[in-house]
Structure formats: structure tokens, C-alpha cells
Amino acid sequence: MSEFIEERRRLAADMEQRGGWPARSPWIRQAVDALPRHWFAPDRLWRWDRHAYAPVDRGHAPKGWAAEVYAGPDEAAVIQVTDGLPSSSLSCEAVVVDMLDSLLLEPGHHVLELGAGTGRNAALAAWLAGPGRVTTVEADAALAARARERLETLGIEVTVEVGDGAEGWPKSAPYDRVIATYAVDWVPWAWVAQTRPGGRIVTPWGRLGHVALTVAEDCRSASGWMQGLAQFMPARGTAEAGRDFRQVRGEGPATNERPVVRDLAPLRADWNLLFALRVALPEVQIATAVDDDGVNAWLHDGAASWATLSAQGDGTTIAYQGGPRRLADKVEQAWDAWLGIGRPGVYDFGMTVEPGHQFVWCWDAAAGPRWPVREPGGAPCRPAAPA
């Protein structure tokens, strides 16, 4: 318990300063104190050195290793790199706490977690739910084995299974609470089917936020509000957005060129706008950067369409577009639509999941604007009228 005490105190103080410890769930801070992050971190972590992910070994650089574990409320510690990209992490403290708070967990609840990772999230849930009340499913057998060994060493009674999280874990169903530690774009119906009426499902959605869904009493749907913003790793095996910008852009000339009259700064800094664009245009990837000329943006759909919004240095911006879809036009139209309904923030959005059909809504699930969620392999989304 005396290891890395300064680092632990600093992280706890940072969480306190930002109001990160939820008043309605005081148990979470107690569990975090009882189960410190470094207990669950492997001896090798990975740090981005501006070129690639480089190993940071506890044995060779204990202070550097601890700095990765306790980097800050919004910093995850990468525990696995696959094909040069992070594929598993010790999630950042702020997100872990926020999602557990959203779960509304109570002692005795039967909990299913999807994505065991290091085992820490499951351990925190078990701290309140109780011994033998948490089952966690991990797709990576090696990660599952390490999590199981760590939990057993610490004397924490959690069941660790190897499987596809999208299928849930029907053998132990039904559950009072379900929580995923990785992002999905389509909420698996198995999670709803394996949750009791009135039960709660908390999952990252769209890789930009997380949602809390309550299962209806008739078990035919689950619905609830977005809970916050954060970026999450996708489900293992999820196809990324096709080709990257350079591949989509290719070498050919733009087929359309026009001036952009709006300030692009919100496209870089307004997370409520970015979330709304993610809802309206889920396939469009947006990247921004600032140089001496101003804010620049790069858009692509991972398939065949692209746009570059290039600051000219004289206060003007030019949009260059290529491919079958005019992505700069699409983004500006969605931006205007967001302005037109009153600039809703992330907490004004919610989601409803039904068998074979899911949609995100704003303001009101029944009467507000809504956007269908595209099922994997399905056609692109189109805005729908309110019910």
C-alpha cells in the first residue's frame, strides 16, 4: 500500500480539484483507494514517443512506469500494442469513475462486464457488488489469463471468461447491470436480452461518449441519456473507417472548390458540435490542426470521398472536395442543423435500442429529432422524422 503513494495522492487531488469524485456514489473513491491502479498494471507499458509506441518497463524505469500509470485523470496507460496501435489499456481514472457512477451499482447486483482488460474495472465493481457477483468477458485469452491471475492473487472473487463480448455471457444471465469498457457503434441486442427489466447498461458509443440505457419492463427495448464525452478504443476486430485520408484522397485533383465563410475554430474545440456531427455523419472522420494561416480540417469517409478545408492566411478558407459526396457541404449542413435546433450538448442526446433498430435522439425520445444508427454492414444513416 505504501508504493507510489505520492503519485496516488496527486491523481486523487487532481480528481478532487475537477470535481471528478461523484457525490451520489461515494463508494467509488473508497474502492479506488482500496484497489490502486498500479496493482493492475503489467510490468510493461507503452508510451507514444511521437513516432511509435515504445515500451516502458517497471524493472528498468520504475518512475517512468509509475508516471504512465498515474499520468492524470484523462490519461490511459496503454498495456497492449497490436500492429503498432494500442489495443488495450488501463482506462483513465476520470472515465472509469464516471462510467461506474453512471451504472448506479448497488450491493448484491449481478454484473456483466465486457472487456476485462487488466481486471481493475471488474475489481472495482466487485468491491461494492460483492464476491462472486461480477462476471467479466475478454476476447483476448492472454489478457484474460493475466486478469484472472491478478484478481486471484488479490483475493478478489470475479469470474473471468474468454469470449466475444458482443454475445454477452448467457450462461450467467440475467444481470442487473451490464458495462462495456470498449466502444461500440451498434449496441448488441444480446446485452439487452441478458439484462433484467429495469436493469441498466452503460457502454461507450460512437468512440466519443458513453450512454446509460435502462431496459424496459417488457424487455422489448432499452433507452437512456448520454452520460459524458471521452474517446474509447473500439471493440476488438471492429473494422476501422476503411482507408485513411491519404488513401482516400489519392493523387487526383479536387473536383470541387469553394470558399468557406464560417469560422472553423468550433470544429476543433467545441465537443458538443463534434458529438452532434458524429451523430449526424457517423462515417465522416474529421481531423483538424492549426498553423500560421489558421485552422485547417481534413474530412473523409473511409471509402471514396474527401475534403480539405484550407486556411489561406488572410482570414479566408477554401474547401477542396473530391469523390462522389461533397463532405464539406455535408458537414456544414449538419452544423447548420445543429445550430437550428438550439446547439444541444452531449447531455441533451439519448439513445434507444430495439431488436434490429437503434436510433439517437435529442431532447425527447418520442418527439425530438432522431437519427438512425447504422447496423454494421448496413447502408449509411439518413435523418428520420420524429415518431
Automatic annotation (TrEMBL):
<dbReference type="InterPro" id="IPR000682">
    <property type="entry name" value="PCMT"/>
</dbReference>
<dbReference type="InterPro" id="IPR029063">
    <property type="entry name" value="SAM-dependent_MTases_sf"/>
</dbReference>
<protein>
    <recommendedName>
        <fullName>Protein-L-isoaspartate O-methyltransferase</fullName>
        <ecNumber>2.1.1.77</ecNumber>
    </recommendedName>
</protein>
<keyword id="KW-0808">Transferase</keyword>
<dbReference type="GO" id="GO:0032259">
    <property type="term" value="P:methylation"/>
</dbReference>
<dbReference type="GO" id="GO:0008168">
    <property type="term" value="F:methyltransferase activity"/>
</dbReference>
<keyword id="KW-0489">Methyltransferase</keyword>
<comment type="similarity">
    <text>Belongs to the methyltransferase superfamily. L-isoaspartyl/D-aspartyl protein methyltransferase family.</text>
</comment>
<dbReference type="Pfam" id="PF01135">
    <property type="entry name" value="PCMT"/>
</dbReference>
<keyword id="KW-0963">Cytoplasm</keyword>
<keyword id="KW-0949">S-adenosyl-L-methionine</keyword>
